[in-house]
Amino acid sequence: MKIKLLDGTIKEFNCSLTILEIAENIAISLKKNTIAAKVNGKYVPTDYIIEKDCDLELITSHHEDYLKVLNYTTAFVAGAAIESIFKDTKLAKILYKKDECEFGVTFEIEPRIGLDQLSVIQSKVMELLKNNSITWTKVLWDEIEKSEEYNEYQKYIAKEMYGTYGEVFLYKIANTKFITPHPITLNTKLIKALEIQQLSGEYWLNDAKNIMLQKVHGIVSDSQASLDEIKVSLEDRRSRDHRIINKTLNVFGIDNLVGPGLPLWMPNGTIIKEEIKRYLKEKEWEYDYIHVTTPVIGTIDLYKKSGHWDHYGEDMFQPFNGGAGNEEQFILRPMNCPHHIAVYKQEQRSYRDLPLRIAEHALQHRYESSGSLTGLERVRAMELTDSHIFVRPDQVEQEFKAIYKLVTEVLDTFKIEIDYLSLSLRDPEDKIKYYQDDKMWNEAEIALENVLKDLNLDYKKCIGEAAFYGPKLDIQIKTAQNHEITVSTIQLDFLLPKKFDVTYIDQNQEYKAPIMIHRGLIGTYERFVATLLEQTKGILPLWLAPTQVEIIPIGDETNESYANEVRNELKKHFIRTHIDNRDERLSYKIRDAQIKKIPYQLVIGETEKTNKTVTFRMYGSEEQITILLSEFVNNLINKIKLKK
Ligand code: ATP
Ligand code: ZN
């Protein structure tokens, strides 16, 4: 049999061998270091026997899946610990979140377990690892299906595994048997340091229609030192979670009666959002965009015509009727493209009108699964910094460059670093997802690549990731939570203009179809503000801070009137202030302003009143500076203008 290794080399053997025997054959050290393997994409343990030709990846500490193996294995042992401590536990599945460096195991149990049990679970995991080994067997799906021994979750997983790989693996430790397609190492000695950390709930299959299972989370590593590092970075990340920061900054609220995933922008959040919006609209003005306002609903026929209904139907809020007894069906729009096409079509456009850049900071709705809803990062009602730009074929490359420039200028203002650019192309084999027109696709894909080459940009090509209507460039960033997100997107579309019969009159008085470019400038305000809060730890720059100056009067009451005078002067220049005239000590008030991350704290007393000065300190600094009020106001105006 022929075995193709990750580096492309091919090894030939004339009999069946286990993974470890193959590893040994390649190098003795490899036998020692291999902890699991991947055979044709399927994870297998080290004594798995290979009988025929395959692609083989040996997983050692250098392999990208090393931590994955460690985490899934520990999750499995944690499941075994839970099952052995608590009677009638139904283990469901094991999980590993790479971004969060964390494993988890979900299970059903009655009564539910409490936080005080975590240390008991941790001890049991240690004991199991010390005294037991992990073994495994293949089991037949027919047997599992009929057997009473497996709970419904395990049967579900077995069926899926059988469907994908044609084999089902059952792992054992002590008295626990567990089915999983995830990688498990038989080498339990690798697990040198671990911590069971949290307890939470998770719907089975992340679907709110299903039962809420309990979930135990933890972290693991192959040395105490690296576990300590993981802990420090996890703590930093948790403290940056925008949902935690929101508790002090009060940016948004969620009310389950209004609906999960339907955020309420509170006054502070509204200021942040509106300031960003004002800036973006100014930038769009600079780049000759025009702004429109269109309704958040449309007829279902509009979205059937656009193709969104066929492609995204399941992710939309479902159609509703208009008035009672009225058959007309509407939907809450999940995207704004068809509305902007309708705006374009209000007039007959000529080649001189193009590029026509229609922008809208537009509300849209998507029915995201309830399990995926996360603060402001993943919501069901969102406002997209959207634009649809109609161009002639000869304008595509130039316009694309202009959009890219606009996007990078904006990201720079927010000090957001691009992680990488992803060029999403179609999968020519996928005849279902993609509109079939090879010429169109080829032209569009070549045009995009030309621009990227011209601009000397590095990018990753992602085959099969294009939208159904055309190729796109996604600008990817890494959030402080280590999540990879698309912050901006530029998408070419040759299809929608044709579907909607969009035209312009060219120089020869002929009707032609323009090309449409969909552009998301910074994505949605919801996800962007979540990202910003996490990146800045809530310490927003002056221009975005909801309260920019906290005024703290001290001494007798006459100073309060000067405090009001200072406030009015700042207010004249649209600088946002708050006077703290509570009956508290100065140090308390200053600490409170620090907690709220207010950029400037002014202390106003007798001297300030007499000299028309202010004494200020900046967030995070102990230094107190006294300057003329007029000078202070000018400094702030300048800083705000420079988006500092
Ligand atoms: P995802 O893969 O995260 O679901 P998507 O690829 O479907 O997003 P697009 O359709 O390209 O997203 O939407 C454009 C932008 O809208 C994204 O870059 C993101 O900023 C934002 N976005 C999408 N879905 C959500 C959501 N549920 N909540 C908040 N923002 C969202
Ligand atoms: Zn669009």
From TrEMBL:
InterPro entries assigned to the protein according to its UniProt record, in alphabetical order: aa-tRNA-synt_IIb (IPR002314), aa-tRNA-synth_II (IPR006195), aa-tRNA-synth_II/BPL/LPL (IPR045864), Anticodon-bd (IPR004154), Anticodon-bd_dom_sf (IPR036621), Beta-grasp_dom_sf (IPR012675), TGS (IPR004095), TGS-like (IPR012676)
Keywords (A to Z) from UniProt: Aminoacyl-tRNA synthetase, ATP-binding, Cytoplasm, Ligase, Metal-binding, Nucleotide-binding, Protein biosynthesis, RNA-binding, tRNA-binding, Zinc
E.C. numbers: 6.1.1.3
One MF term in the entry's GO annotations: ATP binding
Residue ranges occupied by any Aminoacyl-transfer RNA synthetases class-II family profile domain in the UniProt entry: 272-541
Annotated cofactor note: Binds 1 zinc ion per subunit.
Key word Secreted present: no
EC top class, as a word: ligase
Residues reported in the UniProt entry to bind Zn(2+): C337, H388, H518
GO-annotated cellular components: cytoplasm
Keyword flag tRNA-binding: yes
Domain TGS: 1-60
Transmembrane annotation, as ranges: none
Listed SUPFAM superfamilies: Class II aaRS ABD-related, Class II aaRS and biotin synthetases, TGS-like, ThrRS/AlaRS common domain
Listed GO biological process terms: threonyl-tRNA aminoacylation
Protein location: Cytoplasm
Cofactor(s), by name: Zn(2+)
Catalytic reaction annotation: tRNA(Thr) + L-threonine + ATP = L-threonyl-tRNA(Thr) + AMP + diphosphate + H(+)
Record-stated family: Belongs to the class-II aminoacyl-tRNA synthetase family.
Assembly: Homodimer.
Name recorded for this polypeptide: Threonine--tRNA ligase
